[in-house]
Amino acid sequence: MYRKLDADQIVGTVRRLRERVAERFPDSGLSRVSLELEQVASTAAARASWIAQRNYWLRGCVIFFILAFGAVLFFMARQVRVSVQVNNIAELLQGVDAGLNMLILLGGAIFFLISLEQRIKRRRALKAVHELRSLAHVVDMHQITKDPELLLNRDHSAAAQRKRSMSCGDLGRYLGLCSEMLTLISKVAALHVQDYDDPVVLSAVDQIEDLTTSLCNKIWQKIMILEQMTGHISPQPL
User: What ranges do the domains of the chain cover?
Assistant: First the structure.
């Protein structure tokens, strides 16, 4: 029961995160990003289910084309008269070369048809993973300007006041929500490979997990700095 990710539970968790962001930071860019993440998660759950299923219709079409191709070759072979008499070595080599070329072309065509389903699924999965990678960078862009060091900035100019638009508590919650969002992005990406064993897609998902982990580490460094700083200075607008 607890050995696989539940797509419905992940989508539900993303929805609850979006509600928390909208409640705490309404009309913010992060709120709109969380809404986008919910939509992507819902689409990813349906896509992961489609990828995990076997496409019997496509497989039937592939088998039909292979059998039809084989029947055509068999019919052509029966109509061709081949002489087994070889006058010299050059004719033998030409015959062997022609036969090998035919086998290579035939094998390539069969491999193309057999791997068609896998290539279609791989292309859709990689497109989804690329979308999640872009979304992770968008989340990182929203937290990158939230610098705890602004707490020590005593500049009272209008530009500095605009930067200090959050309280210390709000900044900590904002960064925490960004970290949760990045973690959920990696879980949504993992949905695409738990029932689809493709090395290319698995490598792409591992890269997403490495990326989100690295971005989360940067956020938690800011949170730790914020906790240390708020212990030495009085709370003030940021």
Answer: 7-52+126-230, 56-116
pTM attached to this predicted model: 0.74
Over residues 54-66, the pLDDT tens digits come to: 777 777 777 777 7
End-to-end CA distance of the chain: 45
* Cβ neighbours for 195, distance < 8 A, ≥ 6 positions apart: 4, 48, 51, 52
Structure tokens at 18: 């979006």
CA distance 175 to 4: 29
Q: Is the pLDDT of residue 76 over 80?
A: no
Q: State the Cα–Cα distance between residues 115 and 55, nearest whole angstrom.
A: 12
The hierarchical CATH code for the domain 7-52+126-230 is 1.20.1050
Instruction: State pLDDT tens for residues 130-145.
Output: 999 999 999 999 888 8
**Contact assessment for residue 190 and residue 209, using Cβ atoms and an 8 Å cutoff:** yes
Quote the CA–CA distance of 69 and 113 in Å, as a whole number: 11
